[in-house]
Records
---
Amino acid sequence: SLTTQANLPLNAYYDRTAATRASAKLSRLYPGALSTVSEKGAPSVLELPEGLRALGKQIHKLGTEDLLYISSMESRKANREAYSVLQYTGKAWYLPSIRKTRDGEPPYACPRYNGDGLTLTLGGKVLSFQVGSYLVRLALFCLFWLLVWAALPQQAAQPQGAIFDPLITFLVASVIGGFICRVLQIPPLVGVLWIAILWNNVPYVGYLTSGILPEVKVVASRLGLTVVLLRAGFSTNWKALQPIWKNVSLLALFAVLLEGGIHTVLAYWLFDYNSWVWASLEGFICAAPSAAIIVPGSLLLQSDGFSRSRGPLPLMLSTVGVETVIGVWISSFINGLAVTESSLTLSIVLGPIQIIGGIILGTVMAFLFTIAVGLLRNEAKRLPNGDFSEAHLTNVNRLSLVIFLISAFATIFVGYKYDLGGGACVTVMLLSAITAHLWSKDGDPELLEHKRSLGIGLSNTWELLVMPFLFSMTGTKVDIQGIFNAKVFPKGLLIWVCSISARMGVVFLSCSGLQFSVKEKVFACGAWVAKATVQSALSGVALTAVNARLSGLDPAAPNYVALLADRDRAKIVQNVAILFVILSA
């Protein structure tokens, strides 16, 4: 009714999703209420339910610009459930709750216990720790460890055991790293990674993490890669991309290609790879941006009133997912060239085939998933008001999330098992993107609710489990002396400066045709350098593959020496990628 009354234009900042959903629900609850719009003009406030009349009076005072902003805000919300600002606000099992100081509260205060639990005020931020809930979690962990110790071989549940070491690393890195980053107001994944690196190197490399099996680290990397792709595809707003597709193409394609190309040339020269394939593998793994950092930060700024309908943030939100997928596919393709036993010609021929096959399979899986969700939803009968019960829809949404995640995980794991990682990445991205599009294109309220729930489920899966697991296991791969030495650090730092400068140049030029101010262009250049998720997920893939080929191989084999050289190259790739995360996250 609001959009009809204001006669709003259908442009790039307006979406009918909110109006469609509201009108459908109002029509069921108050039959005939919306007909007054067409029959009598604007509806009277007196026709609204008594509890909504005060709100109705305020709505009547809004102008077209206000209504446009509300609509654009609803549109952004509908397409961004896969990301959240939990990194900066809210509470998770490993993050204390945080809020700004209120009027009259000091910016700094010693720890004290009150109704909010144990509170600590630092720099105008109040951190709250519910001591009782932390004790409950500690007791739960102790019970779980006791169960594992009693049910499985004791070696696994003791220090240096296959269960004890990864679990302790996961908890220590998450809680301590999350607390530090919550205080500093930076993404928790940075703290989780740093604490895991320290945990792996104190008092010497592997002392506290020797029980973590290589297979666990591989699982963490592939789980992380899968969720990264799902969120990137799910958050892609095809409607928003249409009016700015040229700028998106310039950013998503040329930024990755230019940064990756310059990095490749410098890496080939500085690290003596003697192989353009390995140099390009390092370059393009490091070139992909991190949507997990850029999107939450952008949403937080928009919630504070910055760049809501114009400026760099809407462009960044529309582009970063596409660029992430491009970077992942290129890296996966080059990784196949570097470590596969197939011929170079066959690998190059299979590249386009993987893309086409991934597009077809991803599209088919998205339609099958949509059909499956419909079948699950229709297991129950509708209520007299035409809706399904909330309990039934909640169960359907939970089961849909499980099906969605298992399908994507299976695709990635099977793809990498048979050296088809690039095609598997395309499949997962298309599965997510097309599913999101199918559920939002017609404005169906029920499908929109499924989309919202699935997006929130993806966000929670990443923030609460996969992200801390991925970055804690990534930290255990890192030998501090392997990065911060005269051979890697100065060369990596030089490559970082040069390649990041190239990316900034592309971003600045792409913003030139959008009437951005100089400050907005500079902001976009700085914001677009974030690295974390792709580098953590892919940095160790080549090293894992080379170690697998070396395992059990006779030293007298003709390719043994070549594989040892490849292992050294793969270690450099991993170390430089982690260095990029440290510098850019």
Note: The chain is about 70% helix and 5% strand.
---
Amino acid sequence: MRTSSYGSLTSLTQLTQQHVNISSNNDNGHQNNHHELHRHLSLFDLVCVGVGATVGSGVFVLVGLIAKTQAGPAVSLSWLIAGVAACASGLCYAELGGRFPSVGSSYVYAKETMGECAAMIAGACLTLEYTGSASAVARSWGDKVVAYVQTWEDEDAGEDDNSWYRLLICVLDPGLGINPCAFLISLGAVLLLLDGVKESKNVTNVFSTLKFLLVFFMATMSLVLANRENMSPFVPSQFGASGIIRGATSSFFGYIGFDEICCLSGEAINPSRDIPRAIIITLLLVTSLYCAVSVGLAGMVPYQDISETSGFPEGFRYRGYYWAAEITAIGELIVLPLVVLVTIMAQPRLNYTMAVDGVLPAVLSKVDEEGNLKAGTKIAGVIMIAIATLIPFSYLDDLISSGILIAFTITDMSVILVRQTSPLDNPYLLERMLVVFLVVSLLSGFLLRSWLSLDTTGEGVRFMTLLSCASTLFVGNRIRKDCPSKRSLMGELYDHEPDEGLFLTPFVPILPLCGCFVNLYLISQLEPIGLAAISGYVGLAIGAHFYNLHQRK
């Protein structure tokens, strides 16, 4: 180690030491557990998890919905813009997943860079993503099964001949908000996870491959059937450029799921190498698939005639290819449950890390001899099954979306805090500037929403929007100029690069700041009841943190 006149730079070594400590914990196991999570996931396994968790309703529902109501044939541009925006946060996850190779994703990153309170918020938001999303997808799958069975009704048959059909519908859709199909698929996913990590990994790999082949078939078949006339005008006048942007806002949620790769870092064979690669490969694959199917669907069917709920099956029927419609409809019912399995798989791992830290009960940190978290899986599974069976998806949507976006924002900020620091003569400047940036970004989002949603916008709203956006740019530029890189300062302390061998997010702090802005803009687009729900939920997380601190004393 070199001597340096910057005595206060010693504190800058803390994150490097924390990285060493985390790696050591993964090698030696936690002291309060007899067993540790086994490292058994290869790069292929991680990519399958990423694709399995990400590709879902985005392909099967959102592509058609956005094409018909927001962007027309230019729907592919919406998905491309959203893919680029998702990469801003995705590259941040790629760096931190390799830098902190332990289970827990954003919870771990927040704990190491911002402290326990931020970590509690991140853990609560990740729970919305894992348990909440798994419940919502299970619920959606149950609704799709009912809708598919309803196509079996024979309107020409007599009342007695249709009695079996009415009985089946009564069983599948008994009313009162109860969804038996969601119960069955949730239960099946939990039982498979309880059977062991290796078995669930094999199922994930098989079904992820099937899902990729199904979407590839949809893209190829629709592109073959594409008609150039359906692509003109490419940007319909009633939608315009603002419609493409609104479509990109909706499309962004189709990319959510890749971050679950990071929650499995503690089980990756070579996390520092494979986690960044898996995230980047997943984002490239998913973006390519989304753009291909968007072009195919918009070319196959005039955008005015695209179904908002079942774009591809109805699109193939529109062109007379009923066999392709059946393959797509049945294929969706077969592969969509994979999202439930992969998403709930991450929740016991998050609970494990939080339990090791003393935030959750110790029972959630129990690992059996084969590296399975059976106690944690049972508890998370029961909660997911109850939510999926009893709570309609419409009550979960905005709360889950906002929670995921907050977790993304925390991760983006964590990269900045890992890589940048306050100047020596102005301590905590970076932290203060980040808080200001988040506030003005959220304000800009609300003002941009007002501007874009109104046919005629007053001069006052336009001025406030431009002023807020300019303030956002000013604060971001000040972070870039006034807050130096830790990497350059640490060169004074080490004879080697402290980040040697790690994937590094490019264009820091600009790229993470762009990710924060996109996430907060999307949060500002949610309905008021959703904003109130996430505010109350975060408030409960903060309250739980202080209660936990009190219990420790």
Note: The two ends are 39 Å apart (CA to CA).
---
Amino acid sequence: MTARPHPTPSKDQRYRKSQGTVLDTKMVVKKARFGSISGKNALACVILLAKVANAQIFVPPTEELSTKTIFNVRLVHGASSHDLQEKYPGSTITPLFSLSHETLKKLSGAKVGLPDLTLWYKVTLPDAADGVFVYEESLGDLDIVDHVSIPLVAAPLTPPIQNKPVTRAANIGAEAMAPITTPDFFDKQTYLQPYSATTNGIDAEYSWEFDGGNGEGVTIYDIEYNWNLEHEDLEMARDVKFLLPDGHKNAARVGDAPHGTAVLGEMIGTDNGFGVKGISYGASVGLSPTLTRDIQYGGDEYNVGNAIVRASQDGKRGDVILIESQTPVCGSFDSTCASGGCGPVEWQDEIYDATRVAVANGLIVVATVGNGYQDLDAETCNGYFNGTNREDSGAIFVGAGGSGVRCNEGDVDPLTARTDANYGSRMDVHAWGACVVSTGYNGDLYDGDPDEDPDLNQYYTDSFAGSSSAGPMVAAAAANIQGIAMKQFGIVLDSYEMRDILVSTGVPQPVDTTRKIGPLINLRHAIDALVDRERHEGGKSSKGGKRTKSSKAQKSSKAKKSSKLRA
């Protein structure tokens, strides 16, 4: 693909580097008058619009945040928050990432050339009640500032297909679990089956034949809003503590829990003879909320980057981070994502930096790319997703394709991108974006004993969809492959190696496709390729270096003595 020229802002315009969008300050004021941006926040946006090309500004609707204007700022090396405080008196300036300075330095130092996470700060400007402050320079003009953006609370990755309504009032209490009356839905989980033109399965069943192939020894961290941890079929998540900043609690609404519940069911649904069986039913799970609330002072903070960083610190090399979030990209400012335009959250530089640090510390990052109808190679994306203007973060980009089940009108042919799928050259792999059977949502498959009131803890769905359902399949597949690598060969695969295996062994889309979402993952082919490579390479990485050894894994020499390497 031919690299597109980098646009140059005129004297009348302000250039936002992170989106490649030329913003006219008059247009921002016009938006304010018509209500898409509050007047005060729009004024702050105009005042603080970057005037130099190495600074950036994000101008989305900000009603969902607070009455105060908030910016995320990355300082240049050598600058400090004290320098910024002198320039912006009356503002509250706090580190954007909540881990200690020493921990952030350690994470950021895992590899030469990584972004320094200690340079990111949240700047909360004073409002009228705090007094009048006059700032001589915009944030983007300050020599000590490298990047500026406004944080955005994006809509959850709500599946685009609506489930059937529940007609009975649900029991939402957390009382003792009711006697198990739930049927076994394993046979409906056809995505677990071997691939064929009929099933379109990812062959999770094959991975279970190998020691470690159920994800044992691997933790999958889910990055999103909320979950129902009382669900009967999520035993592995029951007592998991949220990864939260000190003094914070999860601020997400109860209504956001069905999404996370369905994600967990796909990955770690308990192998117990009823309900669903997770692809990685032997894996552990970590939960890192994106929306948290300060317990003492109040106020919510949406911070996907912080959730990623906290998972990176809590996890170990080889663990998996699943990002189940989206954000307006490529010129879109619709934070509800209702009209499309949403895409990968690493569009925002603080999240991109957090992702790079996670990958460099040995974690595998799987990123859902959202349901935004977006061509990620479009000029408005400024080369952020095709390698033209930004380095590959190392995350595995996951698209949403057809299931092959045809459970509803929203489904499409197998190996085909959903109508609302994001697509482009950066896409790595895809998985089912429709008709997925899992826990949660509004019980369209099952909502408990028909003679009793519906029970949220017994809700199951057969229409989980979009990139929301595709992401967990890929994250769980990565966990199973990693479990086999650790148990059988004593090695830990990094995010790049895992991506190479999944991409090179997947079932390709038709060669004439115009909407690339990558191949459908295939666990059988991926595991066979891993086994074959290890037998021939003897613990050497595809890049020629020796791979990281797993402390708890079996020795590779022992594993090689088994003809099939089965458990």
Note: The longest strand covers residues 70-75.
